[in-house]
């Protein structure tokens, strides 16, 4: 498929303008892809991809970057996105895989696989911030894509809500860390719990703050459950994706 002819899309035209421009040039299935959990030092990384319907059927009330929405608003928008989407998919990458392969490699792999497992093959893909090679269609990296492109914003909501639910489930098994509240990010409360109890198998041991605490625990001989390698997270995920057993997802 040929790349679309050059067009200028103005920010003032709204969050649906980029997709509408591509659709007018023949790319009806425009997927947005984004992730959640890059900055967390515990829990999985979740990548998602969404294709919204063309025209007014794809307009979701309240849709924007997931970080700009309250938890309640994100849940409402998530339900609307899942109900309206032509196709959506997510993949979950475990802390162990992040420690083994590196965050950026996992991020690219997650976005690639989320797009590759969509029920409808995308004709064009918009990604947030940086380009991703190996996509199933031509792609464009969009600066602040989760704010300026509706399909990317939809993917950010799917990724964020999915990950938050996983962290809430994880909190029931490891309540001492407060995962349900801070979602694995290095807040003051999380840092205090990490220092007090040491890392658990769901922390990312390749992160400096976790590695430092694990080193102190080893020196004191109190490593306990923190063996130095995080285990995979496999909570509430729909099906296997790809060839890697540590990566799981929920394509629809």
Could you name the key traits of this structure?
252 residues, alpha/beta, Nucleotidyltransferase, domain 5, 39% helix
Notes on the protein architecture:
The chain has 252 residues and is α/β, with parallel strands linked by helices. The protein has a domain at 15-168 and 236-249: Ribonuclease H-like superfamily/Ribonuclease H (Nucleotidyltransferase, domain 5, 2-Layer Sandwich), CATH 3.30.420. It has 9 helices and 7 strands. The protein has helices at 17-24, 71-84, 95-101, 103-116, 145-148, 150-173, 179-182, 188-197, 208-220, and strands at 30-36, 45-51, 87-93, 124-128, 139-142, 239-240, 247-249. Strands 5-4-1-2-3-7-6 form a 7-stranded mixed β-sheet. A hairpin with an 8-residue loop joins β1 and β2 (45-51). α3 crosses α4. The protein is elongated, with a radius of gyration of 19 Å. It starts with 16 loop residues before the first helix and ends with a strand.
CATH class (first level) name of the domain at 15-168 and 236-249: Alpha Beta
Helical content, roughly?
25-40%
Instruction: Enter the CATH topology name of the domain at 15-168 and 236-249.
Output: Nucleotidyltransferase, domain 5
Mean of the pLDDT scores? Answer: 85
Order the strands across the largest sheet as they lie in space.
Answer: 5-4-1-2-3-7-6
Which parts are unreliable, with pLDDT below 50 for 5 consecutive residues or more?
224-248
What separation lies between the terminal Cα atoms? 25 Å
β-strand number: 7
Q: How large, in whole angstroms, is the Cα Rg? A: 19 Å
Supply the helix-strand structural class: alpha/beta
How much strand? 5-15%
User: So, the CATH homologous superfamily of the domain at 15-168 and 236-249?
Assistant: Ribonuclease H-like superfamily/Ribonuclease H
Q: Can you tell me the CATH architecture of the domain at 15-168 and 236-249?
A: 2-Layer Sandwich
**Total DSSP helices:** 9
Characterize the main sheet. 7 strands, mixed
Task: State the shape.
Answer: elongated
Topology as a string of helices (H) and strands (E)? HEEHEHHEEHHHHHEE
């Amino acid at each position: 498929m040929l790349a679309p002819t050059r067009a200028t899309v103005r920010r003032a035209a709204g969050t649906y303008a980029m997709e509408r421009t591509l659709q007018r040039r023949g790319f009806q299935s425009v997927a947005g892809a984004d992730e959640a959990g890059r900055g967390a030092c515990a829990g999985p990384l979740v990548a998602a991809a969404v294709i919204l319907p063309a025209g007014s059927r794809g307009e979701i009330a309240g849709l924007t970057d997931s970080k700009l929405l309250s938890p309640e608003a994100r849940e409402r928008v998530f339900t609307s996105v899942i109900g309206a989407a032509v196709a959506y998919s997510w993949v979950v990458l475990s802390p162990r895989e992040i420690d083994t392969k590196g965050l950026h490699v996992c991020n690219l792999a997650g976005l690639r696989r989320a797009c590759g497992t969509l029920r409808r093959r995308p004709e064009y893909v918009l990604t947030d911030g940086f380009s991703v090679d190996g996509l199933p269609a031509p792609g464009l990296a969009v600066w602040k894509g989760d704010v300026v492109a509706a399909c990317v914003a939809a993917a950010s909501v799917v990724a964020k809500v999915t990950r938050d639910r996983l962290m809430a489930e994880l909190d029931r098994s490891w309540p001492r860390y407060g995962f349900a509240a801070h979602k694995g990010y290095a807040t003051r409360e999380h840092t205090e719990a990490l220092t007090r109890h040491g890392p658990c198998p769901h922390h990312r041991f390749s992160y400096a703050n976790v590695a430092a605490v694990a080193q102190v625990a080893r020196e004191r001989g109190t490593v306990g459950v923190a063996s130095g390698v995080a285990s995979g997270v496999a909570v509430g995920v729909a099906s296997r994706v790809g060839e890697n057993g540590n990566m799981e997802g929920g394509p629809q």
